Amino acid sequence: MPQTLDAAAVRTWCSLALEALGREREEIDAINVYPVADGDTGTNLYLTVESAAQAVEAVFSAHETERSAPAPADVVRAMAHGALIGARGNSGTILAQLLRGMAERLGAGDHLADALRRAAGLAREAVAHPVEGTILTVATAAADAAEASPHDPVRAAYEGARAALDATPGQLAVLDRAGVVDAGGRGLLAVLGALVEAVTGEAPSAPGPTHVHPPVAAVAAAGGEPCADGEPAFEVIYLLEADDAAVARLRARLDGLGDSLVVVGGDGLWNVHVHVDDAGAAVEAGVEAGRPYRIRITHFDSAAETSREQVQRAVVVVVPGEGLADLCAEAGATTVLARPGEPPASGELVDAIRRAHAREVVLLPNSAELRHTAAAAAEQARTEGVRVALIPTRAAVQGIAALAVHEPDRRFDEDVVAMTAAAGATRYAELAVAERQSWTTAGVCQAGDVLGLIDGDVAVIGADLPGTAEAVLDRMLAAGGELVTLILGEDVPEGDAVAERLERHVREGHLAVDTVVYLGGRGASPLLIGVE
């Protein structure tokens, strides 16, 4: 029995965990009664692991282009980081911290038993007020069993977790009244079962029933009233860039505002989860501590949401910079911010579609890499009764072109056709800085070179951004064009001067071609170009 995991095993584990949670998501949702009976624990765990799986696949994809194998430490850290940035709900946030603990030890070459012990300890530290009979209890039992069976720690961890899960109704009264085991612990058991299969090649024995006896209280597993008297009204989650000292102060402040407080992460990046009555105060506390983003506020009273009147049509657009998010929001779109190296998961896109609260939604992913993710989100939204049209835009400039011709008063099909045509008529380019020497379709580039990518392929290699951009514009306009769109990132030195130079270059070299400039803001590429 291997005591550590290689890169392929971590990848397999992540994939199998996602499959298992996909199968069991609805069942786990149905037994979710603690800490709030809002029926989403299985979904939250699935979305958390989905984000982890995307991060793992990104590592392997990067190494495939270099024809090398990733190091196990890199893969397990990517899994933990992906879970951190995509963590959802109380249990998803705790699972992210469990994976972080495992990554610390496995990345250092420690044994699985050591990794499970560190994971359980780190998760408990992250929870303001640990409660027994929850996912924390199951994680601790898994670590205890693994340490007691050094020759077969993985199977032992699973069996220890399963026994602890079966005992949770005797530890937590709300579970006993509902006649169910803990939903978060049940999800962790699925993740540990995937680990067994990844390491041994054999699936473990099936877990016991989720319902341990008929409910003896009025609040049943799948039908609890989520916002009972005395319970906080909102769940607030956000990612936070802050130092350790600021986070320590934040914990104390949020602990006074609400309950179910979990703060996970480290090295300057944290995921904050809390249940409060004053959602604004929880966000303000994050602003004082550092820079919160990807803020999600959910009202536990679903009636409040369903009573809000739906609009007929909305546009949901993924954007790579905060400036573009503001621009698209001003145009009436619901936005999803894609940070560098952190593409949104399908769950985030589904959430955005729900936030739009429309009967009809046009979805603009603005990235070829998000095609499958967006398709999955669209399919999920359709099962919830929303009519969704996915326009496969591959760049932000295509999304802006589509949004510019959007007319909500037209028939839905006609609007989608017009937006699709506008996006398809827009060629796109991106300027980026090479991180290392590598082969490209335009030749060999060195670290620090400026790369001009046209329609996704490297077409120009230059020494500076303005000169490379001019060469890219000339190539794109050689085939004609009426409008050039320039989107400058926040980090471009002397951005105003660069924009003026490029506008002048287009005006002097290409008559009758107009130019419009937007600021991409934080997170955007140095320069995006669109030609219509």
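Next protein, fold it too.
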Amino acid sequence: MKPQPNGARPMKMSRRGFLAVAGGTGAALTLTDCGLDPSPSQAGELLRSQAPLPEPFQVPLPIPPVKKPIRTEAGTDYYRVVQSKASLEILPGLKTEILGYDGLLPGPTFDVRSGRTTVVEQVNQLDVPTAVHLHGGHTPAASDGWPLDLLMPPGGHEGHGGHHNMTGGDVKTGSRVYTYPNTQRAATLWYHDHRMDYTAPQVYRGLFGFHLVRDDEEDRLPLPAGDREIPLVIADRAFAEDGSFLYPAAKDRPGVESAYMEGVIADVTLVNGAPWPVHEVDAVRYRFRILNAANARRYELGFDKGPAKFVQIGSDGGLLDAPIEHDTLVIAPAERFDVIVDFSQYQPGDEVTLVNKLDNNANVLRFKVARKATDESSIPAKLSSYAVLPKPAGVVRRKWKFTRGDAGGHKGWTINGKPFDPAVMQAQVKLDQYEIWTFVTDVHHPVHVHLAPFQVLSRRGGGIGAYDAGWKDTVDIRPAEVVDVLVKFTAHKGKYLIHCHNLEHEDMAMMAGFETV
């Protein structure tokens, strides 16, 4: 196995030092540790459910259905998705109203081929505007989900009530067509709502799903497949007494109540929409495509008993060059990890539980080993033609500083000292040229770049972190940390975004526009 890459020597930071970096606000944070060690802290406030919660491992793990095209032509598949409300029994005996793509939680999975165009007609039958973003997609600007390119419900919507000037978007009513060329490597992508100022509550209520891209290179690998390839979307949610989703939305403005400005962390773990589910497995290898769809919570996933480990084969942007073995996986909001887990060393009747070590080994998902079985899969020593790129000289360098807002009366979050203004592009970026982008943080921020994947070059001037390998589109930046990435945008001209994927931070203006030219 390829050894784990190592970053610089871990640093510790006192709470006084942390508050100084954060601007001396003294805002409440649920932080187990403000250091920069490999096991990160949480950034957020705990929101506790008011409803009675079930015992874990009582419901089977749901598998999101694969979306079928309504028609197919040469090189293109056409789909229709209806954004609608649905009443689901997530907690036993209670009904939860969700906002869902096709009324599902999570939405249907798109399983598509690289180089084959996906055209999706999104139909809004909700009572709120929406904007769909294919996260990780190499997508034309008109289909990227710019947060003001709103899809309005047919009955209208009374105002938008945002932080910013709401003009300048391409607004449609009833339905909108999104075109995804899928001109990219096989990868685990996902799609979710990206409405200006209201992404957090709308994703929280269910507007997310998987978009899997496959290609010939991946098909040639002897990896687990069929029922042994399982998408896992993990998210935390809280529930009101009547079973509805509990979310601390501000009453007089977008965003959350001030106490939850650092992010919303909830007390129920949903996996594929079910609370603490259980899944029966054979004593063989399984492939898990893991997505963190939480608003703000980080997970350090591990097993409660050996010998199971994670063998990482892919990152946000597809396959690694060689597998990497991990005892645990630290996964920030919006990150994806493509991993193999081998259950062959367990006996029928054994149970092994996936836990979150950042939350005192809190339950996530239980596996029950049912039987011995044949297994023709394997993990090749070489996975892909992917290559680590050297750090180039003489390229354009840009710095993006992610900090709490403390100027001009803005009380949210900023990039380069500015809250998001859709009329202002903070950078003009030439296509087909590598650039080095430097991300600087005050507190924890998972940073997402639209349109192009990137490779992490360094953390704090040293090597890359244990989870930075491969092509990424979201990178977890620790408090007071500096991360350099290498990025190149191709094919599509237009307006795109860089932003924090802590959704409470995003809604409170931690986004910046840039334009590819």
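About the second fold: The mean pLDDT is 90.
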